[in-house]
Amino acid sequence: MRVVGAHHMSLTVLEVERSKAFYGGVLGLPEIDRPDFGFPGAWYQAGPVQLHLIQAPPGHEPAATEAGPSPIENHLAFEIDDYAAVQRDLEAQGHQVLGLGENVGQLFVRDPDGHMVELIQPGGQLGRPKPA
What we know:
Layout: E1 8-13, H1 16-26, E2 31-32, E3 41-46, E4 49-55, E5 75-79, H2 83-92, E6 98-99, E7 106-110, E8 116-120
Parallel strand pairs: 1-4, 5-8
Antiparallel strand pairs: 2-3, 3-4, 6-7, 7-8
């Protein structure tokens, strides 16, 4: 068996409309068609990978969170093309942002359910396969 690529990421969210405002509105991901599964959700396209939001059932607990954004938590990462503009926009909208600097190219922010989201402007240190 060989994995040929990533297809989608899936997040359970407490309020689909609130999460749509973040992923579609704040981050600007285009929403794509989603089959009717009998429960609320939304799908987005993020380059070649999709993001699937799934409405949590009643009683579901939100994601565990620390006080602020952190680069060492499990997280989603989306590529950006203008580090300074993205940081400025997020902060202007009231989001707490952890920026590691333009030379590193990484910003971290939480979505409305506490999931950690990385926004990265790749530089010369992209992950590469290890030599055989």
